[in-house]
Amino acid sequence: MSNMIQAARAQVQELVQAAYGRASAAGVLPAGAQIEAGVEIPKDLSHGDYASSFAMAGARQLHMAPRAIAQAIADHLELEGSYFSRAEIAGPGFLNFTLGPRWYGEVLSAVEAEGADYGSGSGGGGQKVMVEFVSANPTGPMHMGNARGGVLGDTLANVLKRDGCDAWKEFYVNDAGNQIDKFARSIFARCMQLTLGEENCAFPEDGYHGDDIRELARGFLEQAGDSWPGSGASEGAWLTAMAEYGLSVNIPKMKADLKKYGIEYDEWFFESALHNSGFVAQTVELLTQRGWTYEKDGALWLNTTRLLKEKYLREGKSREQVEKLDLKDDVLRRANGFYTYFAADIAYHRNKFEVRGFDRVINIWGADHHGHVARLQAALDGLGLDGSGRLVIVLMQLVNLLQDGKPVRMSKRSGKAIALHDLLDEISVDAARYFFNSRTSSSPLDFDLDLAVRQDSENPVYYVQYAHARICSLTARLAQEGEAVPGAGEIDAALLDAPEERALIKSLAQYPEEIHLAARDYDPSRINRYLAALAGDFHRFYNAHHIKGEEAGLLRARLKLADTVRAVLANGLGLLGVSAPEKM
């Protein structure tokens, strides 16, 4: 797929090298030098669109002043048929190249030819990459943190796929362990209270206190009917049944909430499958065979301290620095024989790499999991799976929900953290997805509810969507007058020579680069910033120049430019999972 930014950069290299070859053949420059020179995009457009540092880079090898080398190159440049209209010498010897009509025309042609695939690249090299995100405990409703992690993970997977990765989206269901036992005991306590009265049955202090547990208890009692509590079943049997019932209600709710939010996974992977298959026990045994575990107080421990020391030394920390770190070991199997969550997590990631063959795994975690990152990577290193190199953890900062300029902390339904379904009752899915992806994951996010529902240019999602709708209205009006959007090959791109027009086409050309950088840096918020900038460039162009009423050639060229912007806006909004409305 095309990347016209990189194509122009590469052509500068080719033109300069060809000019050097001609200059050396003419005896103006010494022959045979291997000069590696950079090509940059100047911030100041008066310095051209691309600048080559060939003359400065070659001064030592050629034993000449950079300005003299630059002059020799400029004298032997052949720009005819290239993307560039002229080249000039500046400063100590930069060769500044200015783009010509051919390049601008080919940008429009590339968007047209590639359609929905425009922006695709090969940076991912076909790597099989898993993005695991949200993975909320199925013991209660999803909250604001899950809302941010959901759109971040979903959009990142979309971006990685567009950049050439074989991307996979996964939700890890923690349906085993202590939190499920606590979940079952909380339902059991509420069932007892509903049956015998709250004053006669204590509720566990560490239980789940939300109203959703009461609702689950009522539903379970309705299902159990007369068999509760006098069927003779043991408390353990009731707890198992309550856990199964609670999960059977909560997991479909989670799937429904996420589907409403525009997220569908390739797989929902259950932690219980790892335990039931013996994979957790097998993984711990492998760590033992490799000498990374020891027994103490009846429990089996992972020597995390030694694993981390080796990891940090490999990464370049000094031995003195490593010895000063406060490192601790981790329990893998408790004295009662139960495996810890950490043991299951190691097994789960072993499954990702060893069993399912993912080349790279990306987890979206809350910032409070920071201390767990290196420990998990080190444990995978201990299994020979290169966790330090192949496991990427994207840490996500908190969301501050604001209304009337003040923090919003309470949910209408539960009185606790804002639930995802409550949020989506207040604002559109488009606004939620756009706002939650509007900052890098490492930055806290202020989510202004009042701004999210405003229908003006202050609302960033409205601003971008309005640009798309504005173009749709324009093309529809002109179509009624018999002016259809022409093909890229049917216009004269040389007519699009105003600064606003050229800035707009450069913005269109930047899209593939933004997708690649978003994938490289695990930062899908780049797409939000790009779309806002593209919409701004379009509004400036549209406010400065007429389309309707211009002479035929210019009208058609500008109409094609506007429609190309529409296509790229829709493309980018689609990556974000946000709609591109035709009317607003």
Distance between the termini: 33 Å
Estimated structural class? alpha/beta
Number of strands: 15
How large is the count of helical segments? 22
Physical arrangement of strands within the biggest beta sheet: 7-6-5-11-12
Beta-strand content bin: 5-15%
Shape: flat
Average pLDDT metric: 95
Helix proportion range:
40-55%
Radius of gyration: 30 Å
- Unreliable residue runs: none
Strand count, sense and closure of the main sheet? 5 strands, parallel
Describe the model:
The chain has a 5-stranded parallel β-sheet, with helices on both faces. It has a 4-stranded antiparallel β-sheet with strand order 1-2-4-3. It has a 3-stranded antiparallel β-sheet with strand order 8-9-10. The model has no long low-confidence stretch (mean pLDDT 95). It has 22 helices and 15 strands. It is flat, with a radius of gyration of 30 Å. Helix 5 (144-162) crosses helix 20, helix 11 (304-314) crosses helix 14 and helix 21 (525-544) runs antiparallel to helix 22. The protein is α/β, with parallel strands linked by helices and 584 residues long. Helices cover 52% and strands 12% of the residues. A hairpin with a 2-residue loop joins strand 13 and strand 14. It starts with a helix and ends in an 8-residue tail after the last helix.
